[in-house]
Sequence to fold (203 residues):
Amino acid sequence: MSDTLAGPLRQETGIKHSRFIVHAGPAASADAAMAFIASASEIGATHNCWAWRVGEAFRSSDDGEPGGSAGRPILAAIDGAGFDQIAVVVTRWYGGIKLGVGGLVRAYGGCTASALREAPRLPLLQLIELEIACSFDDLGHVHAALAAFGAEKRDEAFDAQGARLTLRLPADQADTLKNHLRDATRDRVRWPGPADAVSTAAG
Fold:
């Protein structure tokens, strides 16, 4: 299981007269990541290179540095540190000494890894969303079980057959909840939809 950042961080490093400033922050979605990057980028800097990861989705940018010398090393540092739902911007102020492609890879990847090494971490809790269908007679059993298994009711609809609910709960509680409701309702509860996995910061 991955972690995200407990909060935003900033760290500055000097390499051969260039200033590298790392800004990192939690980002629960691609839109949140891009918003963080826009707010953290420093106008007037030589380069604002960045990367973000949210689950299986990721993006990176070299922002004018040689291809593959900045964004990808930042992303590699994110993955190497075991972070998810995070965005990182590394701002460079050029100091007059060229670093070369290899030097840039080491600089961008290294300062990102250094900043993340001591960063406060927040575990990501793996959640899933389930659909459940039940009769009106069994609705009381379902509602009673929600709090006991840490389930949140996201939606509820009614028709002639009864109720259909969408639940979000910790992934490790799903089978236990299903077994409990199977026993409590004599196997009358139905689970019509596949589980959808999501992650959120714990706490």
